[in-house]
Amino acid sequence: MESRIQYLLLALCLTAWMAPAAAATKPDQLELEPLVVREPERREVNINKLDSENFEIGIHAGMMSVEDFGTSFTQSLRVAYHVTEGFFIEGQYGRTTLGETSFERLSGGAQLLTDAQRKMRYYNVSVGYNLFPGESFIGKGWAFKGSLYLVGGVGSTDFAGGERFTINAGLGYRLIATDWLAFHVSVRDHMFDSDLLGSKSTYNNIEFTGGLSIFF
Amino acid sequence: MKFRRRQRLQNNSRERLIDSRQRLHISSCIVLLTGLFLALPVLAVPNPFGAIPNPFKKYQPDVVVSDPYIEMHTGPGRGYPIFYVAGQGDRATILKRKTDWFKIRIPRGSFDDREGWVHIDQIRHTLDLEGNPIAVATYGVDDFARRRWELGLGGGDIDGAATINGYLSFALNPYISLQVEATQILGEYSDGYMASASIFMRPFPRWRLSPFFNIGTGYIHVEPQTTIVQSQDLSDEIVHAGTGFDFYVSRKFMLRMEYRRLTVLTSRDANEELNQWKAGFSIFF
């Protein structure tokens, strides 16, 4: 009996002594944990966080021919938001100075407008459509991305001391130099009614400009 | 006892040693700190532990092509030619987005990377690095119905005078929204401005052509353009009721047509009634 208890105790001691040795991990697993635990990189792709370049801001300068008032220098600021690859929305604000009418030149000293009234400002909101997107080739080795676009909208013109409702329509060519830079050439007709020279008539004012814009 | 004394002596001598070297330590510390401070911008660049996120680093995730191939165009549009085709299993980095086009880079060695534009329909079939399809949100009538902010521009007519208007709208739920609006009036004989606030009700927000009704109040200011008209500035309160419809075009773009009946609460005996027609386009968020 006594020896049996002894055996049992011995067996227990032996298992207690052997157990940690048996459970011990392999030597290569005993390496120290690194002090700085790197967070696993988040691999989930969220395309809404991508940098998007749908806005375009540009400056344009050129000539504007105001009916009866000759042609003069004009400059404008344009901001566009590209809704799809086809459609874009554009806002334009421009300034020019009116020249002299033929009546003023022929009559000698008569002045139809004051200097303040000769400053013409116009703004409009328009919708544009990229009609022929594609590549243009200059020489053999150069290919530029570009697009011909149609644009039209409504706005207001501060003409000869009064605000006129103005409809504009035109077309332009956008030459994309890099992802963020583009060159423009555009022709637009700004149309409004006025009775400044006696009878009421529609004024067609052609704006021909070149411009530079950046995408962001 | 002897041992303790010896230890104290040793400690004393060590202290003295430290004392004598302290100045040297302080000055070298200052030199080191200054050096470290000056080197900080250089040291900060590799950012070894990734603990400080670089705010200027753009988000450019990696994806894996899972379709048999995807087509890379030279520009972000249907008119620009395909110049390269990436095959199944190719790894690509998405660089940026323009409307529905994504610029990607296929790494092919240091000077042979290919960069081109891929349409959203093909990006939708790529996988992230863990093999899950990437989530590409598409806009649909549901987004149109659940729109929260809306920014619109348009033109119209108010009893013969042309108008240009812009508005901002906030939806409390798909059925009710609040709107503020500014209108410029460009008449033959008079110019003016109008500002208004309205509440809109949409009974069928999930329809692509969704009708609406509105009521509201505002303020109108009219001034004559020439001396022929009685020279008198008119500023009055207005109340209005209107109806019209929104038409969902695509993505975040919609068109709106509206008719409004305006009642000008004049200071004279009779109120003035005006009819306003307008059309415009809006972007919603």
Describe this structure in words.
The complex is a heterodimer of chains A (216) and B (285). Chain A is mainly beta. Chain A has a single domain (53-215), classed as Porin (Beta Barrel). Helix content of chain A is 13%, strand content 55%. Chain A has 2 helices and 8 strands. An 8-stranded antiparallel barrel of chain A has the order 1-2-3-4-5-6-7-8. In chain A, a hairpin with a 4-residue loop joins strand 2 (70-82) and strand 3. Chain B is α+β, with helices and mostly antiparallel strands and 285 residues long. Chain B has 2 domains: 62-127, SH3 Domains (SH3 type barrels), CATH 2.30.30; 143-284, Beta Barrel (Porin), CATH 2.40.160.20. Chain B has 3 helices and 15 strands. Chain B has helices at 2-44, 120-123, 141-145; strands at 62-65, 69-73, 82-87, 91-98, 101-106, 114-119, 126-127, 149-158, 161-171, 176-186, 190-201, 209-224, 234-250, 253-265, 272-284. Chain B has an 8-stranded antiparallel beta barrel with strand order 8-9-10-11-12-13-14-15. In chain B, strand 4 and strand 5 form a beta hairpin. The longest helix of chain B has 43 residues, at 2-44. The radius of gyration of chain B is 35 Å and the shape is elongated. The termini of chain B are far apart. Mean pLDDT of chain B is 81; it is low at 42-50.
